């Protein structure tokens, strides 16, 4: 075995060991009732809120699902031991108040985040889509020096009739001039996938 192959095998082994340890630590955490866990989400029209509730259902334990728009930052950080964070992604990025939490309370929260997720219209079915999703995660995690190990992307939902006038105009322009596609309603939410993500926090190894 040459040096390059040896180093590659060692790297794979270390990564596997790290993933195993991380998965076991999440399972132990969730099963430890003395640890309080909050799933904090930022949602504009409800798709991320639905996904957050499905994830919590998959975990099947005592996880409080909290809307970022209704919480007090300091009080919440003092009340919970670990966090799962999730945001819808729009043209202007992740939910602004959730980004504010990550930016202004970085030291207090980053070591407590066990997983993150985003909800958006990008499918990730091709190379360009996957690259965009990774870009969304990079911007979502940008305030953090310690990045969440476990992360997941979910499809979102757009109902034109429910959009604000500002969002409707922005998206109409985006579809016509960037995507070159018809601007119409769609729903890519997936309860089963969201629940599986919650379950993966128990089975991840």
Question: What would the keywords be for this entry?
Answer:
5-stranded parallel beta sheet, 205 residues, 8 helices, two-stranded antiparallel ribbon, 18% strand, globular, alpha/beta, disordered N terminus
Q: What does this entry look like structurally?
A:
This protein is globular. The protein has helices spanning 3-31, 47-59, 73-79, 96-104, 106-109, 127-141, 165-179, 191-203; strands spanning 37-42, 63-67, 82-88, 113-120, 150-155, 157-158, 186-187. It is an alpha/beta fold and 205 residues long. The chain has a five-stranded parallel β-sheet, with helices on both faces. Helix 1 crosses helix 8 and helix 2 packs parallel to helix 8.
Task: Give a quick rundown of the structure.
The protein is an alpha/beta fold and 205 residues long. It has helices at 3-31, 47-59, 73-79, 96-104, 106-109, 127-141, 165-179, 191-203, and strands at residues 37-42, 63-67, 82-88, 113-120, 150-155, 157-158, 186-187. Helix 2 (47-59) links the parallel strand 1 and strand 2.
Gross morphology is: globular
Give the helix level as a range of percent.
40-55%
Strand order of the largest sheet: 2-1-3-4-5
How do the SSEs run, as a string of H and E? HEHEHEHHEHEEHEH
According to DSSP, the number of beta strands is: 7
For the terminal residues, how far apart are their CA atoms? 28 Å
Structural class: alpha/beta
Largest sheet: 5 strands, parallel
Uncertain runs? 2-20
Number of helices: 8
Average pLDDT figure: 86
| Beta-strand content estimate | 15-25%
| Rg, alpha carbons | 18 Å
């Amino acid at each position: 075995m040459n040096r390059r192959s040896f180093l590659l095998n060692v790297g794979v082994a270390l990564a596997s060991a790290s993933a195993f340890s991380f998965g076991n630590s999440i399972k132990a955490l969730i099963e430890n009732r003395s640890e309080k866990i909050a799933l904090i989400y930022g949602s504009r029209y409800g798709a991320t809120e639905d996904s957050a509730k499905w994830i919590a259902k998959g975990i099947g334990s005592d996880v409080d699902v909290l809307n970022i728009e209704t919480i007090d930052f300091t009080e919440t950080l003092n009340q919970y031991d670990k966090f799962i964070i999730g945001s819808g992604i729009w043209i202007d990025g992740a939910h602004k108040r959730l980004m504010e939490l990550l930016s202004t309370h970085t030291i207090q929260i980053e070591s407590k985040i066990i997983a993150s997720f985003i909800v958006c219209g990008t499918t990730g079915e091709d190379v360009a889509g996957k690259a965009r999703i990774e870009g969304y995660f990079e911007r979502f995690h940008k305030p953090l020096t310690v990045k969440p190990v476990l992360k997941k992307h979910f499809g979102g939902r757009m109902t034109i009739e429910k959009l604000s006038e500002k969002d409707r105009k922005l998206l109409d322009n985006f579809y016509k001039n960037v995507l070159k596609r018809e601007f119409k309603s769609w729903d890519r939410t997936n309860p089963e996938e969201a629940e599986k993500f919650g379950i993966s926090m128990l089975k991840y190894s």
